[in-house]
Design goal:
346 residues; 14 helices; 71% helix
Amino acid sequence: MIDWDVARRTAATFAGSGPEVEPHEAADVVAGLRSASEVASAPVSEYTGLKAVGTPAPVLVVDRRRWTEANLSSFQDLLEPMVAKLAEQAPNRISRAVGSRVSGAELGGLLAFMSSKVLGQFDPFWTGPDGEAGRLLLVAPNIVDVERKLGVDPDDFRLWVCLHEETHRLQFTGVPWMRDHVRGLLDEFTDATELDPQAVSKFFSEGVGELARIVRGESDASIADLFQNDRQKAAVDRITGVMSLLEGHADVVMDGVGPDYVPSVQQIRRKFDERRKGAGGIDRIIRRLLGLEGKMRQYRDGAVFVREVVDTVGHDGFSAVWASPENLPSKAEILEPASWVARVRP
């Protein structure tokens, strides 16, 4: 169903290299990011109360091509059950061979586009040779590109980014059940996936109009939403609740820790938020189609949830969210923090 070689070649071809950087400057950037990651570790742990368990997850400073390769490797592992299931439902070998190359090119193109946007990412599902659970990827050319465009202090910006990503690392390595829980939610989505001819028919009868509304910015849906069945949508809602919490929490932590470690944090936050709003033209259309506008809402809504809960019950009360999967907020509770407080801390 997916030709992974085609995906890799496509991603490598279109990822690009990023801004021009002299060799000595590149070495300084890599060293600076590694140092910033180390500096971020202790204050994030102290602020969140989370402590990593087991073998430390490694921090890798990568370029765009290595980022796409890392994600393709993870996707291949994560999507294997879904690919096998869809292959059984579409047994025609010729159509599968053609379709796999098309899917490979699409996936490679998507990752090439994303490779120029992502500053950092924690991959929770990678397992290292010494039992490391997850790995943190810092995409050096993108960090340099953004700090230049924003005109902010490079050392401050790199540490600020690392505060966010270090929070993600602790969310998965300091909460023992988080990794398996998120993987279980993805498995639920896979189990609900069917090659449904009715969904395709519905797309052509109703989805074209919805697609136009997405492009015009009149709909919060993405292309993927147009093909999801009810069980998939329920699984996506649960995933959205978790990811909104994790992304919003990381944003709150980076701003909470920032003033003590990042002198220009207020300037960086203001300029960075302006940049998030500033996408226009084709870039904004692509973001809408791929659901990236929804990703931005996860940061915003999740941060509001965390702040309101902390204001109501304090940091100790908020920490109940890490006690068990049952304490995670639903998608609806993210938008109504008081309902989560009433349920978890009556």
